[in-house]
Structure formats: C-alpha cells, structure tokens
C-alpha cells in the first residue's frame, strides 16, 4: 500500500534501537518502494556528527542487521542519500534552529517525530518541537516503550506530550503489535467462526503466554536494572497479547474500536493483592549456566554489580473479572537466558467430561491450540486420533498444523516496518492509547510495590533453564503444567 511522502526525524539517532531496528526497517520500506523520493530521514542526537559520519554509521548498521542478500549496493546508496543528521540537545536549546532549517517547509510531506530516547526526554523534546514551530497540525509523534517507570511517571509523560500532540497524533509503540503473528491473532479470532464460539470459560480450561529469550541484558544493563522483566515485558508486550486473546469483538477494525475492547480487558484484570503476591507471582534472576552448550555468565556479572534486586524472569497467574473468562487463569511467563527464544500462546481446552476408552488404550490429553508467535511461526491444534494399525483401538495426540513459513513463501517484515508506515498513514490501530498504558501500569504497579516491600530477593535460576522451580510450582499447584515443546 503506497504511503505519502514523509519526513521522519529520529531522536536518539545513535542509539541501539535506531541502528538495530529503525534504520533497517526504513531501508526495507525504501527498497520495496514505500519511501517516495522526496521523503527524508533525519537523525537527531547529541553527538557531534556530520551527515557523512552518520551515513557511515547507518551503512554499518544495515550491514550488521539486514540480511546481506537484501542489501543491493545502489539501493543502499540511494537510501543513505535520503538521510541527514542534526546535532540537537533534546532538553536544551542547541540545534533546534538547524533542525528547523533542515526540515524546511514540509509541504505535502508528513512530519513524523520518532522519540527513540529515554522516556524522561519525551516531555522536553515535545516542548521544544512546539517552541520551534515544528509541531504543526500534520505532525505526529511516536513514543517508544517504556512510557514511564510507573503509573505516575506515565501520566506525567502523557500529560506533557499531550500539551503538544493530541491523542490522535500520538503513536505509542508496542512493537509486539506490529509482529505478523500477533496481528494474525485478530484474524484467527475474528475472521473464523469456529473459534469464537469456543472462546470462553465453558470450553477453555486455561491460557498460557510464554515469551522466552536466550539473550541476557546485552549491554543494556543501565536501563534494564532499573526496569526488570515485569516492567520491560509484562506491562506492555505480554498484557497486549493477553488483551488480543481475551477481548470481545470490536465493532469494526478501526483504531478506537479495537482499543476500547483492549481497555476493557485491562480494566477487568483482577488486582493482585499484597497477600496474594507470594502465591501468584514468581520472580527470578539468572545465575551462570549454559545455553546450547555455551557457558554464559550470571546477571550480576553481566551487570558488573555485586548485587541487584532486579528480576530477569517473571511468572504470574492472572485472572479476569468477566463472565467470559470466569475461573480461566492466564499463566504468563517471560525471562532472559532461557533455553530457547520462543514466544507462544497455549489455549488449553477443558478435559473430556468422561472417557469411553479403556485407560490402557489412551492417555487422553485435552485439546490444545498452540499459537507460535516466533520463531517457526505457526499454529497447531492438538487432537486425539487413532493410532493406525490392526492392533486394536489405541489413541494418541496428533497435531493439525499450519506452518506460516510453508503456507506463505514470503519474507516476514519486521514489526517496525509495519508500524512506521502506519504512523505515516495515521492508522493508530496497532498502537497503545493513553488509557491502555495507564491501565496496564495500574495493574502492574501494586505487584512491584509488594515485591519491594518484601525481604525476599528474586530467586536464582541457572541460565539455560526454564526459570526458578517456583515458576513450575506456580502452575502445578493448580494441577496444570507449562507447555514445553523442546
Ligand atoms: C523489548 C525489550 O521491548 O523487547 C527487550 O525491551 C526484549 O528486553 C525485546 O529483548 C524482545 O523483543 P523481540 O521482538 O526480540 O521478541
């Protein structure tokens, strides 16, 4: 789908996110003809670089983060020619007049200001954009997560940004919403009639959401140690997945209609009371171990600190106050330095009320729908079938599989490609509205407070394991087990 010409100013232009994700995403959109010729990318940051030096960094970033088969020399050169750089101090006065000159008159081009900086700078940068006449009626702002550190700081940031940009022009990124397989949840649920009728507590026993990573803190210790897994992954990505799974049908595939339904889910999350925190949450921190046979250090060594109370793993049992989901637990877990990178959703259906088969013929497993978000994207519906052969009726679980890779021989665009183009199109469906972000903080914050008020430290787990054993106990206490497809 073609987009209008745009000017994308990226604050935090020398940072990891810009180099690793945003520039590669823009490169792909350019290569596929979605960046009209008069569009511009302007890197803005504090470092004293000129256009040539920044383009050299951008070139290195593309070589590091784009598949070499997708890098054609002349395409890269033409892409880099559309990039310039301005030294700007987000909080101070330096650089703003130059930025204004470089942008010149936007004309028909859509101005997009992408704030890939620390969230403390969102307010000051927006104020400066307004003071320097850059926040015109067509301009839009894109905010990376995290929006703040807790509910109060999120409100403060939203207020300050809101003084300059209306809600309709504010795009809060949760890159999970841009992942193809996450968007596919909407198709699965609302473009098929078979599942919706089963999507409730009459038929579903429980839901599991796992987002496992093998990476550690990878040089992001400064940010991560002030954040931890609950703030970094659950408050945003995992709760967004939960919303898409649990919400009712929106009245239309339209931004506010979708976000209204997600908000209802967030508001239905049952608060976890301080006295329940110990039984329905587990936090862990990775210790030295091995992944894929390679030894890796523990979190404290990665951080270079003697101690830290920050969790790199969290498991939770969440419940929703709604008729549809009464007594259907949502078990959530995420962690760094787990055995494999794997994000998946498991919908486990209720066990048969009664079995007509003799016990020795069948170890009857409940049906499960397994939605693999990454890698090896696909879906599997696990069902019991008869073992072929003349030896009598023996049953075993088999999968009805869809592999997206095999079904669609196409490259999966990175989440940022879709989301960046949506900001130019002005389509906010896959972005978080202010009230969603604040509702998510409102649920997460009491958990953090309860953890902080308790003397226990996060439980250690060996790198390369599935987290502390307490996370296994969390679900096994309810007579259920985590799905581990290793
Ligand atoms: C980011 C978190 O939002 O998501 C990181 O800050 C995490 O800590 C990353 O590694 C995971 O994203 P993905 O797309 O690799 O699953």
Automatic annotation (TrEMBL):
An example Gene Ontology molecular-function term: glucose-6-phosphate dehydrogenase activity
UniProt-listed Enzyme Commission number(s): 1.1.1.49
A single GO BP: glucose metabolic process
Residues binding substrate, per UniProt: 175, 179, 213, 232, 336, 341
Statement: the UniProt record of this protein carries the keyword Oxidoreductase: yes
Transmembrane segments annotated in the record for this chain: none
Binding residues for NADP(+): 46, 145
Protein name (database record): Glucose-6-phosphate 1-dehydrogenase
Organismal lineage: Bacteria, Pseudomonadati, Pseudomonadota, Alphaproteobacteria, Acetobacterales
Chain's gene name: zwf
């Amino acid at each position: 789908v073609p987009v209008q010409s745009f000017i994308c100013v990226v604050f935090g232009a020398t940072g990891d996110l810009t180099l690793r994700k945003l520039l590669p995403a823009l490169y792909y959109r350019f290569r596929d003809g979605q960046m009209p010729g008069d569009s511009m990318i302007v890197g803005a940051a504090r470092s004293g670089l000129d256009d040539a030096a920044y383009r050299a960094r951008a070139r290195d970033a593309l070589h590091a983060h784009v598949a070499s088969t997708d890098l054609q020399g002349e395409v890269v050169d033409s892409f880099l020619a559309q990039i310039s750089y301005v030294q700007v101090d987000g909080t101070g006065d330096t650089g703003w007049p130059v930025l204004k000159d470089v942008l010149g008159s936007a004309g028909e081009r859509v101005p997009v200001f992408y704030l890939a900086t620390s969230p403390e700078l969102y307010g000051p940068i927006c104020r400066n954009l307004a003071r320097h006449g850059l926040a015109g009626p067509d301009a839009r702002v894109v905010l990376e997560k995290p929006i703040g550190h807790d509910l109060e700081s999120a409100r403060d940031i939203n207020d300050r940004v809101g003084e300059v940009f209306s809600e309709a022009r504010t795009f809060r990124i949760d890159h999970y919403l841009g992942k193809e397989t996450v968007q596919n949840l909407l198709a699965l649920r609302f473009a098929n009639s078979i599942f919706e009728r089963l999507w409730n507590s009459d038929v579903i026993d429980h839901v599991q959401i796992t987002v496992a990573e093998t990476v550690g803190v990878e040089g992001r210790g400064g940010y991560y140690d002030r954040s931890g897994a609950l703030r970094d992954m659950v408050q945003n990505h995992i709760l967004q997945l939960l919303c898409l799974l649990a919400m009712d049908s929106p009245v239309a595939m339209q931004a506010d209609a979708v976000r209204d339904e997600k908000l209802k889910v967030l508001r239905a999350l049952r608060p976890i009371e301080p006295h329940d925190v110990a039984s329905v949450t587990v936090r862990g921190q990775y210790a030295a171990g091995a992944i894929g046979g390679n030894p890796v250090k523990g979190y404290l060594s990665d951080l270079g600190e003697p101690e830290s109370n920050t969790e790199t793993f969290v498991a939770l049992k969440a419940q929703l106050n709604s008729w549809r989901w009464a007594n259907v637990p949502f078990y959530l877990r995420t962690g760094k330095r787990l055995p494999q990178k794997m994000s998946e959703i498991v919908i486990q259906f209720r066990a048969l009320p009664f079995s007509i088969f003799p016990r020795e013929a069948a170890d009857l497993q409940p049906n499960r729908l397994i939605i693999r978000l990454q890698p090896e994207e696909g879906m599997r519906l696990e069902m019991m079938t008869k073992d072929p052969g003349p030896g009598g009726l023996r049953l075993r679980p088999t999968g009805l599989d869809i592999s997206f890779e095999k079904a669609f021989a196409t490259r999966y665009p990175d989440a940022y490609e879709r989301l960046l183009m949506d900001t130019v199109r002005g389509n906010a469906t896959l972005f978080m509205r202010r009230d969603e972000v604040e509702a998510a903080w409102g649920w997460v914050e009491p958990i953090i407070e309860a953890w902080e008020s308790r003397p226990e430290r996060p439980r250690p787990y060996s790198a390369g394991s599935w987290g502390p054993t307490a996370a296994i106990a969390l679900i096994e206490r309810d007579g259920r087990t985590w799905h581990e497809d290793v």
